[in-house]
Specification:
258 residues; D-Maltodextrin-Binding Protein, domain 2
């Protein structure tokens, strides 16, 4: 009898632990305010959206601040349940909800005096342009220019808490002509980080716009597909109730779909 009781207790404890683990979600995110703000009191609107959706469904949600490429890699490997604000072309092989979590503009910024306009891959020749590690056009531009010319043309930076400070300084000192940045992020940077002083810097053109998603690991496909459905349902509910508008308003933004 005692042996049977012990077996039942162990089985019950194991079941509780499994259920507890299933209720935990861990997402990676990188510095890209107002999308994601790991180092601010307000953690970013995509963070607020994901937390609100999944906590309403009984999950416990945590976020891990990492450089973008590392966060995407760990999600792909199953070390994280997913990564916030990922483009489908940037993270192929991941599982995506039907509804996006944000919109992104792929723009380039440089000195006011620079007449250059961003365009196709050839427009970047004979210049030095900073992009982030894993940016959406890497494969397409590498194919168009070839690996050697691509590496001479683009300089990869990790998106971390010092990305904006570093790229502004590079352009000011003439060590690079332009840097990649989402237009929403740049506007937020100008407003909330005056110490970085972006005077004399302008938008030199955008090469595309894309929706961003909560990208979920393919390593637990059934679970990720369930989370994808739950996210889309939750996102639609937030939009219908006006709660999404309230979240975005906190960051001075409006719904990109309206």
């Amino acid at each position: 009898m005692n042996r049977l009781l012990g077996i039942l207790m162990v089985f019950g404890l194991t079941s509780v632990q499994a259920e507890d683990k299933a209720a935990q979600l861990e997402f990676g995110y990188a510095e890209a305010c107002p999308h994601m703000c790991p180092y601010n009191e307000q953690k970013g609107f995509t963070t607020d959206i994901a937390r609100t959706i999944f906590e309403k469904r009984g999950y416990r949600v945590t976020f891990v601040a990492l450089p973008w490429a590392r966060a995407a890699y760990q999600a792909m490997q199953g070390e994280l349940d997913g990564v916030l604000s990922a483009g489908k072309l940037e993270t192929p092989g991941m599982i995506f909800p039907e509804l996006e979590i944000a919109e992104q503009s792929d723009c380039f910024y440089g000195k006011d005096s620079d007449p250059w306009q961003a365009g196709d891959a050839s427009s970047f020749l004979n210049r030095t342009t900073i992009i982030f590690n894993g940016w959406v056009n890497e494969r397409r531009y590498r194919k168009a220019l070839g690996d050697e010319v691509y590496q001479q043309t683009f300089e990869e930076f990790s998106i971390d808490s010092r990305y904006y400070e570093r790229v502004l300084e590079m352009v000011r000192r003439g060590r690079a002509h332009a840097f990649w940045m989402d237009s929403t992020v740049f506007g937020y940077l100008q407003k909330h980080n005056p110490e970085l002083d972006s005077r004399g810097i302008k938008n030199l053109g955008c090469v595309g716009h894309q929706y961003l998603y909560l990208a979920l690991t393919p390593q637990t496909q059934v679970r990720s597909e369930k989370l994808a459905v739950e996210f889309s349902e939750g996102m639609q509910a937030l939009r219908d109730s006006g709660e999404l508008a309230n979240i975005l308003q906190t960051y001075g933004l409006k719904d990109w779909r309206h």
